[in-house]
Amino acid sequence: MTHGNPQRFRRLAVAIGAVVLVVAVTLALQHDDETRPAGAAALTVGTDWRAQAEHGGYYQALATGLYAKAGLDVAIRQGGPQVNHSQLLAAGKLDISIAPNSFIPLNFVDQKVPVVAVASMFQKDPAVLIAHASQGHDSLEALKGEKIMISPDTRIGFWRFLKSRYGFTDDQIAPYTFNLAPFLANPKAVQQGYATSEPFQIQRSGIQPVVMLLSDSGYTSYASLVVTSRKLVNEQPDLVQRFVDASILGWADYLNGDPAPANALIKRDNPDMTDELLAFGRRKLKDYGIVLSGEATSLGIGAMNDARWKEFFDLMAADGLYPSTMDYRQAYTLQFVGKGVGTGGTR
């Protein structure tokens, strides 16, 4: 999975192209709003990358009618290169955005944008570092001082955690272009990735990678965060609750039921997606406890807590990313989660 939204760090020529594409997307969204049926409440949701297993629960809720049953007319817009759904959300062109990590809601607070996270469908961020076997690169501690290929977005993302917790330095950074060829060609290479994607491609090339899940080594970022405007939360909390609950049920069904309905829509939106990669991604979501682990096992899928947000913020504030006086609590609300939805419990 090639996350990172690198468009935010392109040069002027690419930035101009991004503006053109955002305008096109905006016009498309406006057209969709005009053609969608009346009755159910319309919500346009933007994902953080091109459609894949990491979005399976949302697509399952759409495909199996869970959103419709909740009185919602949901349209999912996949992300990808040159699509910045965070900007579209802030501009009011999306109702909901799926954010890849805890930095996004905190960044909104830092920039004084009234946007808030209302659920975290992933208890663990699937971000990993990937190395070759038999090179001594089998732990994060062993990677201190080694060159690591990361994207510009990652440099202000989990790289900050690795610097603070493991003593990594910026001179270790090598450019990552979302192409596996440099990694495959160099046994000493180390790169970023997602547990649900790149290891599959590497294995298909005949290489068994060493995969280090950052969330199992102290990285406490939430992931697949449901983010929306404070205006929607304040004025239509029932609408937000219905979306959160239906999405939770979609994730429970995607992981434990038949994923075929979601996978069909994912492949429609992203024709490059294969059945094999979808199956691998779904299996890793389960194997690693990405969705169901920690508090989610008792409080329900989507659960968040204050202590974890504070721990993450404190670490990043100590690293200088945020002012220590910033009210990090403005980045999230717990009012819509922790009610047993998705665990067999009831609200």
Structural account:
With 347 residues, this protein is α/β, with parallel strands linked by helices. The chain folds into two domains: 6-124 and 221-331, Periplasmic binding protein-like II (D-Maltodextrin-Binding Protein, domain 2, 3-Layer(aba) Sandwich); 127-217, D-Maltodextrin-Binding Protein, domain 2 (3-Layer(aba) Sandwich), CATH 3.40.190. 41% of the residues lie in helices and 15% in strands. It contains 15 helices and ten strands. The protein has helices spanning 12-35, 56-63, 66-69, 85-90, 103-110, 152-155, 158-166, 181-185, 198-204, 230-235, 237-256, 260-269, 275-287, 296-299, 306-318; strands at 41-46, 72-77, 96-99, 115-122, 127-132, 148-150, 173-175, 190-194, 209-213, 223-229. Helix 2 (56-63) crosses helix 11 and helix 2 (56-63) packs across helix 12 (260-269). The longest helix is centred in the first third of the chain and has 24 residues, at 12-35.
Summarize the helices and strands and which ones pair or pack.
Blueprint lengths: L11 H24 L5 E6 L9 H8 L2 H4 L2 E6 L7 H6 L5 E4 L3 H8 L4 E8 L4 E6 L15 E3 L1 H4 L2 H9 L6 E3 L5 H5 L4 E5 L3 H7 L4 E5 L9 E7 H6 L1 H20 L3 H10 L5 H13 L8 H4 L6 H13 L29
Parallel strand pairs: 1-2, 1-3, 6-7
Antiparallel strand pairs: 3-10, 4-10, 5-8, 5-9
